[in-house]
Amino acid sequence: MHPEDAQPTIDAWMQAVAEKRLFEFEHRIRRRDGEWRLCSIRAVPLLGGDGNIREWVGVHTDITERKRSEVALRESERRYRNLFNSIDEGFCIIEVVFDDHQTPVDWVFLEVNPAFEKQTGMFDIVGKRVRELIPDHEAYWYETYGKVCLTGEPIRFINEAKAMNNTWFDLFAFRVGGHGSRKVAVVFTNITERKLAEKALADSLRELRETEAALRVTQAALSKEKAALADHVAQLQQVNEHLLNATSEAQNLAAEIEKGRAHMAHLAQHDSLTKLPNRMLLNDRLAQAILLADRHGKSFALMFLDLDRFKYVNDSLGHAVGDQLLQSVAERLAVTVRGSDTLCRLGGDEFVILLADLEHAEDAALSAQKILDVLAPPHRIEQFALQITVSIGISIYPQDGLNADDLIRNADSAMYRAKASGRNNWRFFSRYESAGMA
């Protein structure tokens, strides 16, 4: 028995003897191989005819692994809750309701994050049915989520919720649980403003085409008039000058529209706070990297970065200081990547770096160490000198995943192992160790 546990065990035993009751206690026992194990003792007293304890019957159980599993489960739940509450995208878990013919007819909101309320404008909806909240919701939504339940196939789609004030959403839905589960998780973004901007741009382009068509008709008519009426040359010259001015204005308008389109495309693919590429552009770069790697028989690395204890900065100093710290981190990270690499902010305090055209896996480790060194000096934010560390997970294509989702997920898993190892370090993805963590 462990020296620290001996006396408490004896005291508890003597108390149970005095009270003639069940004895229960946990203490550490060293096995023959020298390893300390946590054990549980549970013993029942058997009384004789005189009412005194005749003997004890008990069980001694090794509960070491159970205790470790309980701690790991609590930590996993804590990380899930932090992620659930901090992501910018709306997130909810629903349970789809089917009728007797297996037709989806309703769903119940089981859980929503704060961003859900911001994205939809709906509050206090957990436990409520969607038909109660949005009676005129289109059948398309029930069919889509029902299909995800029945097939288990995730789906990415963009659709307009007319019953919700014509709001547009960009959504990704996937089943939670195995076959027969009726639960669906939905991650989404309100893109109504983007859709309105696209419509305005389309209307402007249509008006431009109509103007250009009218100008062509007018020019043709003027040319015919000039050939037939030589005595009106001066008048036609004036009209032609007017048309040239109108054409120039139309071209200027077209140039402005094209500039606006390019600006909107940039905003759609970049993070507004750090100006770094966002998840949309990262997915595009990953698709290109996979094609090039397959074509030339090479590999590349994906590094998933998560700032350690960044939430404490936001909670103690405010989001304004937290945003400036994120910008400072982004500037330092930018100097560590090559021109062929991609530095991206996924959201919150998460960053991803795509290391293209990787010769050796050790090169990714060198890059990770360089990042740790670059972020080590304090960040000067207003009157504060803030030190922030980062945990880094690394996945390698193709051995750690053949698509973008697998590579990101496995790099994320490796990052959590880095945090579990004390933070401010990096880890490569390992299927064996990830299975052990699960």
Helix and strand composition category: alpha+beta
Largest sheet: 5 strands, antiparallel
SSE succession: HEEEHEEHHHEEEHHHEHHEEHEEEHEH
In what order do the strands lie side by side in the largest sheet? Answer: 5-4-8-7-6
Approximate helicity band: 40-55%
Outline type = elongated
Structure description:
This protein is of the alpha+beta class and 438 residues long. 50% of the residues lie in helices and 26% in strands. The protein has 13 helices and 15 strands. The chain has helices at residues 3-19, 64-86, 114-120, 130-133, 139-151, 192-228, 233-269, 279-296, 310-317, 319-334, 361-375, 404-420, 431-437, and strands at 23-30, 36-47, 53-62, 90-98, 104-112, 155-161, 167-176, 183-190, 299-307, 342-347, 350-358, 379-381, 384-386, 390-397, 426-428. The strands form four sheets. The protein has a five-stranded antiparallel beta sheet. The chain is elongated and about 140 Å long. It starts with a helix and ends with a helix.
